[in-house]
Write a structure and sequence with these properties.
heterodimer; A: 293 residues; MetI-like fold; B: alpha/beta; 2 domains
């Protein structure tokens, strides 16, 4: 394969510089600071810090509540990804098949992506409220059954639903675009051979969608670790006794609320490594199964 | 020539104009929100209107926690305010960093006179050093009371609001017998159920006299009467006398009380004005928090927040802030605060003057001074001075999370409190290591 060589160009450097500056200021610099704080005990109002080596990491990793936080985060990530991608794929296939009203759906389904996570959490708070929300109708049939503040599994279900709802929009657009890039001749040939829509979907569309699948899998899982903060903060506030204490939320409560900057910095580093590891695993093992045309 | 004259005249006019309008400004970041936040903004306007030398620029921070967080971030960038309204749990770090200007010293340095002896000891002790020097200025002070539905009590034949927990339990039983489904709207609150409970019973929350005497403190509340109290609360919920009412459960305890669903709820006296505004459709009143029989009642301590003067500002800003604080301490400004909120007076002279005027005999202030009686029941002892613990926010949230888990049936109350104490002790140990070699001033 031939490689293209470009001469160094000042214009190129100047165009890239702002983006590099942003990445440096908003990622590398804070990460370096967090790395430094994670190995020391930082006083909130300044005035010095003590070097403690790996103590912060040891404290975090030996805390049973930290591990339950990791577990809930992983469950949340997988559940929202599966739910969001399934919904998005179904909707995209319907829109691709041009079922009734598909034009309106094509435009409207992208809108939830523009809604900020805290707004989503607030809206779903009204839906899930045990006394006055839509789910309160369950309580009229079986009193006291639906209570977000008592049953951890209900709180987790609530944030999964809210998180998945938010992520459907993004996945939908990519799936729809990928579906529409499948040549019509292939679909027509399959139809002429007697394949029904379901068979066409399973044998034709899904395999050709695998690149998009892979991309959305990585994006959705990474996003669900970080974007979930707004939803948890407004919907459950960490949930009944830490049941929805996602890793990113625990960093906020420990660091900003509890003024334990070093512990929170250590947790941030661990979260960053976890997301990097997950992405690495996906690239190494899942990408093999992707058919690139 | 005329052009030069014209420009010279213009420049002269511009500089002259700015020189005369120069007020010394200082920034004040406060944490109160809603109605109460509007009152704070109003005090700033009143201060600015009352004199023309200084100007207070007051910025609401949407909550005590956010006020402290934002100020820390601003402090690290050198852009912090002169005055900060900080709640009790946020002050340990500030105290140990030394980045504040004790108000006693501030007043002495700027030549503003304040009668420090006029402050109620129960209030003064919470905000001062062991030598009696005030670190921060008390302003919006409150203490817990319980609100009860007079109509429900009358229907159940209860003539006097109980001041003991045994009397409270008897009242619950009477209320239930008279057909009341919910006697107590309960929301776990470490401030009321743990801290104030320990104060009024003169039992320790932590060693080292609740943290005043050193940083090697350990929590003790899983070995005191507090355990029995929480077990009683759990029993009352299980037996149907009390119900859990929190925001997450759909309805707060205050809403539950105001709607007439539950007969009793515990809260700060600061809610007194808010409840008046909500105009419940029944007669209601307040009473001091109960104690257990056989234990001598002691004073409760203040909650609310105090005003801290931060370091690293100019002398002029300090002078302006000192004048503002002195302004707030006058009787007229305290009265303004009391008329518009449920807070209580912080100086003895103001309280005496208001009593003489019949302030507390008028609606809607009737019986609000029962909070003063609670605060001044006894002289503060070593255990009832207050609480000075590091990582206080986390200690409180550990308590709340564990108690909620116990009330939901996930573990026994004793186990929950033991876990909360051991986790709290880890926080305290880390706090001590962070500030190794330092002690509270």
């Amino acid at each position: 394969m031939r490689r293209a060589y470009f001469k160094f160009s000042w214009i190129a450097a100047a165009l890239v510089a702002p983006q590099l500056l942003i990445i440096f200021v908003f990622f590398y610099w804070p990460s370096a600071q967090a790395l430094y704080w994670a190995f020391t005990l930082e006083q909130p109002w300044g005035g010095g810090n003590t070097w403690v080596g790996f103590d912060n990491f040891r404290n975090a990793l030996s805390d049973p509540y930290y591990w339950s936080s990791v577990r809930v985060s992983v469950i949340y990530a997988l559940a929202t990804t599966v739910l969001a991608m399934t919904m998005a794929l179904t909707l995209a296939i319907f829109a691709d098949r041009q079922l009734a009203g598909y034009k309106a759906y094509r435009v409207a389904i992208i809108w939830p992506y523009a809604v900020a996570a805290p707004a989503v959490g607030l809206a779903f708070q009204f839906v899930f409220n045990p006394g006055a929300g839509i789910f309160s109708y369950i309580n009229t049939i079986a009193p006291g059954w639906w209570d977000l503040s008592k049953y951890p599994w209900q709180a987790v279900t609530a944030i999964v639903i809210a998180g998945a709802w938010k992520q459907v929009a993004y996945s939908f657009i990519f799936f729809l675009a990928a579906l529409q890039s499948i040549p019509r001749s292939l679909t027509e040939a399959a139809a002429m051979d007697g394949a029904r829509p379901l068979r066409r979907m399973l044998d034709l569309q899904l395999p050709l969608l695998t690149p998009t699948f892979f991309f959305l899998l990585v994006i959705n899982i990474t996003d669900s670790f970080t974007d979930s903060f707004g939803i948890v903060d407004t919907l459950t506030g960490g949930g009944p006794f830490r049941a929805t204490d996602l890793m990113v939320y625990k960093i906020y409560t420990d660091g900003f609320r509890g003024l334990d900057y070093s512990g929170a910095a250590a947790q941030s580093i661990i979260l960053m490594l976890l997301v990097m590891a997950l992405t690495f695993v996906q690239f190494r093992y899942v990408e093999r199964r992707v058919h690139y045309t | 020539m005329t052009q030069k004259l014209a420009t010279a005249a213009l420049v002269l006019a511009a500089t002259a104009g700015s020189a005369s309008a120069e007020k010394i400004k200082f920034e004040y970041w406060y944490g109160l929100t809603g109605d109460l936040g509007a009152v704070v903004a109003e005090t700033c306007n009143r201060f600015n209107a009352s004199q023309d030398q200084f100007e207070a620029v007051c910025v609401g921070q949407d909550g005590y926690e956010k006020a402290v967080q934002n100020t820390i971030a601003a402090f690290r960038a050198g852009k912090h305010p002169t005055l900060l309204q900080s709640f009790d749990a946020g002050t340990a770090d500030l105290m140990l960093s030394g980045e504040f200007y004790p108000v006693t010293q501030l007043m002495a340095d700027t030549g503003v006179t304040i009668d420090w002896a006029d402050y109620f000891p129960g209030i003064a002790n919470y905000y001062s050093s062991t030598s009696g020097e005030f670190f921060s200025m008390p302003w919006n002070s409150s203490t817990p009371v319980y609100y009860f539905n007079k109509d429900h009590f009358a229907k159940a034949g209860i003539t006097e609001a109980p001041v003991t927990w045994e009397g409270m339990e008897a009242a619950f039983k009477a209320l239930k017998a008279s057909g009341q489904a919910c006697s107590l709207a309960y929301a776990p609150s470490s401030w009321i159920d743990l801290e104030q409970f320990s104060m009024v019973h003169n039992i320790p929350v932590a060693s080292n006299n609740n943290g005043y005497d050193g940083l090697d403190t350990e929590l003790l509340y899983n070995t005191t009467l507090h355990v029995q109290h929480m077990e009683n609360i759990q029993r009352w919920i299980n037996e149907g006398y009390a119900m859990l009412r929190t925001q997450a459960a759909g309805k707060t305890s205050r809403d539950s009380f105001v709607e007439g669903e539950c007969s009793v709820f515990f809260s700060s006296i600061a809610d007194h004005n808010t409840i008046h505004k909500l105009k419940p459709a029944f007669g209601w009143d307040v009473q001091i928090i109960p104690t257990y029989e056989g234990v001598e009642r002691h004073n409760t301590v203040v909650g609310g927040a105090s005003l801290w003067v931060l370091s690293g500002k100019t002398d002029e800003e300090y002078k302006a802030a000192a004048n503002y604080l002195a302004f707030l301490a006058t009787k007229e400004e305290q009265q303004f605060l009391l008329e518009n909120t449920g807070y209580i007076p912080v100086t003895k002279s103001t309280y005496d003057a208001l009593l003489a005027e019949g302030f507390y005999a008028r609606e809607p202030f009737i019986n609000r001074d029962i909070a003063m009686k609670s605060l001044t029941w006894t002289e503060p002892t070593e255990l009832t001075r207050g609480i000075r613990l590091g990582s206080m926010i986390q200690i409180r949230s550990e308590w709340t999370a564990e108690v909620e888990a116990a009330l939901a049936g996930q573990k026994t109350m004793k186990e929950a409190l033991d876990i909360a104490v051991s986790r709290g002790n880890e926080h305290l140990a880390r706090f001590a290591r962070t500030y190794a070699g330092k002690s509270f001033p």
